[in-house]
């Protein structure tokens, strides 16, 4: 469980789309020395951004990536320290009381390594983008005579062989070809390494004794469901806990007490994926109340958790949700858009969910890192099944399989599982994408990461996504579901659509014969530049993208009757990458453009996904009216 902005009336978000700044300062770039990866973890000096840093000062919106906000190409490709700063006034009631409330500063995510000060006092540092972190700032702000709270953030987007994702700095020493101190950041993944404070920053309070974590798992038979819960409290040993579970009409359907227990729900409304039931994404609401006597005072904390009742099982040929076979007909996505880069963008998020429903997609993979909690909330509510992927993308260098990297990967899985473990939409964890899993150390590495993830959450299957040869892959023995990426007639035999039936059939047969585990085609696709046409189809045209999809689909149609349990197109939408000779303003394998307009391939996929949904015994809710998502 991660407490977030929705829970507390005392919550005081820093204004979204406002600059984190002290007048008139916003974001500053660090010293060039800070760019050197050898100084990556050298602490920047505490204190204000304005006092300590060189470089231009820019008004910078939060949340957003900083890269595409200005006209300055050096900021677009900047590697190193940047500084954000903002002053906020805290309500006086947050600063007083006996005991005074606990004041927390929370970041939804910041890319990549962050150090945070409040009023010049360091309160937290955090390694890794894509996941939240927070600091208890009570002692700092409550000790101050002034309700003004100065928040200063130093952020460094340098990737090293031991970060997730990994990267390395290449120094170009040849003075005849490169300017002095020239370097580039090399990464082995195919998306632009946007950086900045990507998700909301909020301040919230809890009582001094508070609910720190809740874990729920659910099981069900036809007429009874059981919700196992575990609640942990911090700040008091003498406390009482009471729980009540309400249905969507607000009726209490089960109650419980104590830190560990089970709720019994008669005739439950199960959480079903979109297109598998006429009422997908059914969420109960679990209210957990804590009362604790601290000195003379009785403290009360309340946390309300949306809760979906569903089960997930994997057999050698099937993926079962609530005991029924589930076929993933979905997409791979990115957090990516014009101008804001990877910054959270509500209109874009809601647009994407409307497109997913239009498409008839019932699932996506969070390629290649955990997505914003706001996105995950909508997956829970709309019944979109999620393969929740860690930022383990581009693990290619031998040194990235060593103990230092492994320990960091385990820590990242802990953060991810803690954040998303209670989400019914999350049906599987993916620990990595396309690692060099044929290397000998990959065996120990993936065995350990997968075992650790299963220990953290025994209720879900675990996988990683591979593009290695079936006979050489050293991580595959440890996964529950084989997820394979392939680009026949694109990266292999470019232009030769006729090889697909043979090669794709062999791919599936080989993997299945070796492992007898169900298989997901976790990526396939072709770039297309919208508006480029040719007949017969040629690469990069809309016709070629359509034709390639159709070739894949005819093989998938045979294999989904056997052991193939899903297909996820690469990609939902075009997205930005590093510049390169194979990228025309980014990766163009989207079936939608970056601005979310359909290419011809979107209609091919839409026909297919609705056909698959209608074939099953499920009841597809055809969208006939518009409902608005209000938050
Ligand atoms: C796959 C990667 C994905 C890339 C895609 C491509 O998993 O991140 O964007 O190839 O090249 O191998 O389009």
Automatic annotation (TrEMBL):
Enzyme Commission number(s) from the entry: 3.2.1.31
Subcellular localization(s) per the UniProt record: Lysosome
Major localisation: other
Positions of the Glycoside hydrolase family 2 immunoglobulin-like beta-sandwich domain: 209-310
GO cellular component term of the entry, any: lysosomal lumen
Domain Glycoside hydrolase family 2 catalytic: 312-613
Highest taxon of source: Eukaryota
Positions of region (Disordered): 1-60
Molecular function per GO: beta-glucuronidase activity; carbohydrate binding
Catalytic EC class: hydrolase
Database matches in Pfam families: Glyco_hydro_2, Glyco_hydro_2_C, Glyco_hydro_2_N
Keywords: Glycoprotein, Glycosidase, Hydrolase, Lysosome, Signal
Domain Glycosyl hydrolases family 2 sugar binding: 71-207
Coiled coil: none
A single BP term in Gene Ontology: chondrocyte hypertrophy
Matches recorded under Gene3D superfamilies: Galactose-binding domain-like, Glycosidases, Immunoglobulins
Similarity comment: family membership: Belongs to the glycosyl hydrolase 2 family.
Function (record text): Plays an important role in the degradation of dermatan and keratan sulfates.
UniProt subunit comment: Homotetramer.
Name this protein carries in UniProt: Beta-glucuronidase
Source species taxonomy: Eukaryota, Metazoa, Chordata, Craniata, Vertebrata
